[in-house]
Each structure stands twice: as C-alpha cells, then as structure tokens.
Write a structure and sequence with these properties.
The structure holds 2 protein chains of 2 kinds. Chain A is about 80% helix and about 0% strand. By secondary structure, chain A is mostly helical. Chain B has a 5-stranded antiparallel sheet. The chains are: A mainly alpha, B alpha+beta. Chain B: It catalyses: ATP + protein L-histidine = ADP + protein N-phospho-L-histidine.
Chain lengths: ~260, ~450
C-alpha cells in the first residue's frame, strides 16, 4: 500500500513541482517580480478546497463527465499559460517592458497545475480515510511521495538557478516543451475516457522496454506524458504541443527583431 | 530566495529529504521482502506441524491439530486469515473450519498465490512421501498488512523527525555563515573615515580572498584619499605665498600710482577673490568627512554664533544690513568647533553677499532634548526650489551673475553637516529670502 501511495502522489507532485520550478526559474531569468507566487499559492489551496467541497457536483455535472472535463481544462489552461509566458518572456528578453500579463501567465500555469494535481491527491488520500488498516500506510506513502516530488522540484530550481542565464533559459524552454506536451497528452486521454475523442490504433508498442505500469513508466507519464502504445492523435498532439513552445518563442521574438532591423 | 541561509537550508533539506525518503523506501522494500520470506517460512513450518498432527491418521477435522497449526502462523489470530487442507488422491480428508472444500490452488509442492472464497491467498503445499497433500494458506491481503504495519514502524520516525532535521540544518547553516555575518557587521560598524584593514579572527578559506581583496581595496582608497588631501593642502599653501607677494607689490604700486586708479582697484579685487578662493579650497579639503578626523567636544552653539556674528558685523554694517541673533542660550551639543565656525562664516557670508543693501539677516538657534537647530535667514532673492539640491555641488552657483561667490561655500557647509551627522534643508524664509536650517543631533 505504501509503495502504491508513494508512486501515485509522487507522480502528481513531481509534475506540479517541476512546472513550478521551471516557472520560478523563468521568472528569475526574466527579472520578473516573484510577487505572483505569493498570490497564486493561496489561490491554488483555495482551488483545491473548492474542488473538495464541490466534488460531487463536479463529478455529476455534464452527464457525469464534469471531473474529466475540468481536469483536462486545467491541464490545457496550464499549457496555454506556459505558451503565453514564453511568448511574452521572449519579448522582455528582446528589450520590451515587463507586462502584467507575464505575471498572470506564471500564476495561471502554476495555479492550474497545482489545483489539478492537488485534487488528484485529495481524491486518493480521502478514499482511504475510512480504512483504518490502510490509512497509516497511505498517509505515510503520501508524505514520502510528496517529499520526494517537492525535493526534486527544489533541487531542479537550485540547479536552474546555478546555471548561466542563457543555459538556464534554454533548458527551461526544453522542460516547458516536454512537460507541456505531457499535459496535453494527459488531457487528451481524459477526453478519450469520456468519449470526446475516439481511440485510435496504436502506432507502436514499447511496453516490452518500459511498461506504463512500472514505476519509471508512471513517473515518465506524469512528467512527459509517456505512452507505451500511443494512438496517432496522441503522438501528433505530443509533437505539436512540443513544437508550439519554439513557435511561441519565435512569435515573441519576431516582431521586435523586425522593428530593430532598420536601425 | 535572496538569503544565502534560506537558500542553503532549502537545498540541503531537499537533498536530505530526497535521500532519506529514497533510503526509507529502499529499506521498506527490503524489509517487506524479508517479512515475506519470514512469513513464507512460517507457512512451511505450519504445514510441517499440520503433517505431524495428521500423522495420527485422523479422518475428521481435529480442533487440536487445527489450533496447533493456526498458532504457528497466526499466533492469536481468529482463524479467518488462515486455512489448511489435507488431500489424498483428490479427496479432502481434513480442513480448517472456514476453508473451502475445493483445493486452494494447484495441489503441487511449493509456494504460490491463489484465489479462493473471494480472497487471494498465499499458499504452501507439501506433498508427503505417501502422496498426502498438505495445503497451508494465509490471506495475502492481511498478511501484507501485518508485514507493512511492522515495517512502517521503522519508516514513520524518518518522516516524523524531518522537521527536527530541518531545525538542526537551519541552526548549523547559521553557525556556518557566522564568519560572513561577522564580516558584514564589522564593515557596517565602521566610521566612514575608517579605512584600516578588516581583521577577521581565523577567517574560513572561502573568506580569506574576500578579506584580502577588501583590505587591498581599503589600502588603495586610503592612499588615494591621503594624496587628495595632501594635494589640496599643498596646492593651497603654495598658492598663498605668491598671492601674498602679489598683494605686497600691488600695495607698493598703489603708493606710486595716483589715487583711484581703476586698473589697480580691479587688480586688488581680483587678488582678494583669488585669496578667498584659495582659503575656500583649503576649507573644502579640511572639512571633507572622508579625510578629516573630527575633534568633537561639547560646545555652546549660541556662544559660537555670537562670536562669529561679532567678527563679521563690520562687513554687514558696510552694506547697511541688519544682523540679529536670537534663540536659546546655551545650546549645547558635541561638535567640532573649528568646523562649525567655518560653517557659520560661510552661511553668514552667503547671506551678506546675496542680500541687497539695507536688508535683514537673522541667526536663530533653538535647542530641544534631541537636537540643536541653527537657522540663518535673509531677505535676499532666495534659491529656486529646483536648484536647492544642486547648490551643494562644488563650484555650482545658483545665480550666474553672482561674481563674488566661489561656488564652494555650501559644499563646505554640506561637508561639515555630514561630518556631524546633521541634516540641512533650504527653505523660504519669513524675511522673504533663503532660510538655511541645520539640525544637529544631541
């Protein structure tokens, strides 16, 4: 029970912690004030609280698809906010003034990720609250999983902070690309569960090398959306989402380069 | 994370938590494996007990034998978590009360997991030499829970003691950063004119180079200040001698020329201005707080102001100016008397120069428990608000046509104010001109 609990909580916390670390490192890199963090942490807790209070209503909404739709929506919103951050961040790097939208982008990305992952953990932990035999193992497992996830996030932030600004920025973009693509693939799977997306024939199967059920497979799924046997739509979504990050970067950069060119 | 301590504690705690929790998980997995093996050995032992109990050839379910075998596996268990069967040639000869009448798993020797009666069981099957099959089974879910409970008792303290570890790391990092804190405090506590080397007792290796660099910088700074001080003083002294000779020659020339010669009057005025400028440059150099070691002693500002106003009275009278001294007497505080005399002379000299003939100048001194305030007010044109910051710059003149000023007076005043830790403000005076207020802390 403890191991299951560790893996499930770690899977959720690791994704949110890595995204938060990358957003913090980007904010530092772009010399954006960190005040957004002070606002979005209580908002994330409030969001998780609201989710817990209205869990039944959310689950029953839209003919029983409310929870999946809300979760998928949060993941897509987090990814969209990441793209906004990269686009506006590149403008700032090119010499534009800091925009309040940049702090808003950071906040939305972090709040959505934390509410989504926090809600999953809440669901899991509360499911075992009434089982005294398993409660201790689940709680201890949750604490260990959360501790490992948060520690990895803090160390990732420390590593990004210790790097040169340029290298840290490039690495942040790469991490946003893979984490963001993972978010989109996960949301597509949720939509598939409620029949909003038709399942397709697998393009390949790498279960023999790395099973989705194994611990590394589950962690990779959480961080980069690893699928052992992806449908064509999922593969294209992953690739498209990952490429959307350099596209947002280019979009933020191009107008400024053109304006500077005549000078 | 702008604090090194917070950063270090966060990173150390993250690394510590990661390693501790991973080690705890590793320990948990190993312990669980050991516990499984131990429980498996108990199952095997239980099957052996069962075989011996059955060796009497009982054809019925024997409570004594059941109890003996149960006790081996479960201790004081209620029997739900444990089951056994004895089979011969496909016939169930003997079983525990709640055991199924169907075989629990395959009737082949060895360990295995099997489903029976709606539960999953861990099963050990022993095949005796005569063909009898002894099956001993334990509910997998319950046996797992028992093992986990035991192992958790060793994992839980690691989690619960983590805040204590964080507190210890916080304190230890604080100790480690003490030399850095000491260095900062030592530099902060210095007077602005103290350029002596920084001395840190047994500095750590990481700070040795920093202290050496800081001391080298301080030494270069002290040498530069000394050179500047010596240059200004030497230059002023060197200029004084030829100016004195020039004054003597002009005096002699005045005796030879007819009275009222305009060129001679201009030459005399020029030399006087140059003498004043040299004195001002010397005062500016002497009053620089970075270069001067102040000679602070208790003094009465009112008495000092009385003496200075008396000295300058003839010059005021010459322009028909009224000069008043008002305020509390005595107004005592600790100051450098020579410097304060220069300050008063400069403020009064400025007031005299810029106040039109027959105007008024007032010196007011007020003393409170915390400060002594000096105000020099005049009925002159005053200084525009946008220029009040800039008049303290060297050689800056608020009025370009004020040919009589050197542009150094208020710069000297500002030096002296700074050396006394005082505050200076320029305001509109009740007399219509400028009011210079200086507040000295007591």
């Amino acid at each position: 029970m403890l191991i299951n609990s560790v893996v499930l909580v770690l899977r959720e916390v690791l994704e949110a912690a890595l995204l938060l670390s990358v957003m913090l490192a980007l904010s530092l890199n772009l010399r954006c004030s960190m005040r957004w963090l002070a606002l979005c942490l209580p908002l994330a807790v409030l969001g998780i609280g609201l989710f817990a209070v209205f869990l039944d209503s959310i689950t029953d909404a839209l003919e029983g698809t409310g929870q999946e739709l809300l979760t998928a929506g949060l993941q897509l919103a987090a990814f969209a906010a990441c793209l906004l951050v990269i686009c506006l961040g590149e403008r700032v790097r090119a010499g534009a003034r800091q925009s309040p939208l940049l702090a808003l982008g950071f906040s939305i990305a972090v709040i959505c990720a934390m509410v989504r992952e926090g809600a999953e953990i809440y669901l899991y932990v509360t499911a075992f609250a009434a089982s005294p035999d398993q409660r201790t193992a689940v709680y201890v497992g949750a604490v260990i999983g959360a501790g490992i996830g948060v520690s990895l996030g803090v160390l990732a932030y420390g590593g990004l902070r210790a790097m040169s600004a340029r290298a840290a920025y490039v690495l942040c973009l790469c991490l946003v690309a893979v984490i963001g693509a993972g978010l989109v693939v996960q949301s597509s799977q949720l939509l598939e569960q409620i029949d909003w997306i038709a399942p397709g024939e697998p393009l390949w199967n790498t279960s023999a090398w790395l099973s989705e059920e194994s611990v590394p497979g589950q962690l990779l799924y959480a961080v980069v959306g690893y699928e052992a046997s992806p449908a064509p739509l999922q593969a294209w979504l992953w690739l498209g989402s990952a490429l959307a990050v350099p596209a947002a970067w280019w979009l933020g950069r191009a107008p400024w380069r053109q304006r500077r060119a005549p000078a | 994370m702008r604090s090194i301590r917070t950063y270090l504690v966060a990173m150390l705690m993250a690394a510590f938590t990661l390693v501790t929790f991973l080690a705890a998980l590793n320990g948990y997995l190993i312990s669980m494996r050991e516990a499984e093996q131990l429980l498996d050995r108990q199952l095997r032992h239980a099957s052996s007990v069962l075989q011996q109990a059955y060796s009497g050839g009982a054809q019925q379910r024997d409570p004594a034998a059941i109890g003996a075998a149960s006790a081996v596996v479960n201790g004081a268990g209620n029997g739900e978590e444990f089951a056994f069967q004895v089979w011969r040639a496909g016939q169930l000869l003997f079983a525990s009360p709640r055991a199924s009448v169907e075989p629990i798993g395959e009737l082949e020797a060895g360990y295995r997991f099997a489903n029976s009666g709606g539960y999953r069981w861990r099963v050990f099957t022993r095949v005796a030499a005569d063909g009898d099959v002894f099956v001993v089974a334990e509910r997998a879910d319950l046996r797992y829970l028992i093992a986990e409970k035991v192992v958790l008792k060793s994992v839980l303290p690691l989690v619960l003691w983590l805040p204590v570890a964080a507190l210890l790391v916080w304190v230890v990092v604080g100790w480690g950063l003490k030399p850095l804190r000491d260095l900062g405090q030592q530099i902060n506590a210095r007077r602005s004119d103290d350029l002596s080397p920084v001395a840190l007792e047994r500095p750590p290796l990481e700070l040795v180079r920093l202290v050496e660099s800081a001391n080298s910088l301080l030494a270069r700074l002290a040498a530069a200040f000394q050179r500047e001080k010596e240059f200004a003083t030497h230059a002023a002294h060197e200029l004084r001698t030829p100016l004195s000779i020039l004054k003597v020659h002009l005096h002699n020339l005045g005796a030879e020329l007819p009275p009222g010669e305009p060129s001679l009057a201009h030459a005399n005025a020029g030399v006087e201005r140059m003498c004043h400028l040299v004195e001002q440059v010397l005062d500016l150099s002497r009053s620089n707080p970075e270069l001067r070691q102040g000679k602070f002693a208790p003094l009465d500002l009112h008495a000092l102001a009385r003496r200075v106003t008396a000295q300058l009275w003839p010059a005021f009278e010459e322009k028909g100016l009224s000069l008043e001294l008002e305020g509390d007497e005595p107004a005592r505080f600790s100051g450098d008397e020579a410097m304060l005399e220069i300050l008063l002379e400069n403020l009064l000299d400025n007031a005299r120069k810029y106040t039109p003939d027959h105007g008024a100048v007032r010196v007011r001194i007020t003393a409170t428990d915390s400060a002594v305030a000096l105000a020099v007010e005049d009925s002159g044109p005053g200084i525009d608000e946008d220029q009040r910051e800039r008049v303290f710059q060297r050689f800056y003149r608020a009025s370009p046509d004020a040919a009589c000023g050197t542009g150094l007076g208020l710069a000297i005043v500002e030096h002296i104010v700074r050396a006394h830790g005082a505050r200076i403000t320029l305001q509109r005076s009740e007399l219509g001109g400028l009011a210079v207020r200086v507040s000295f802390p007591r």
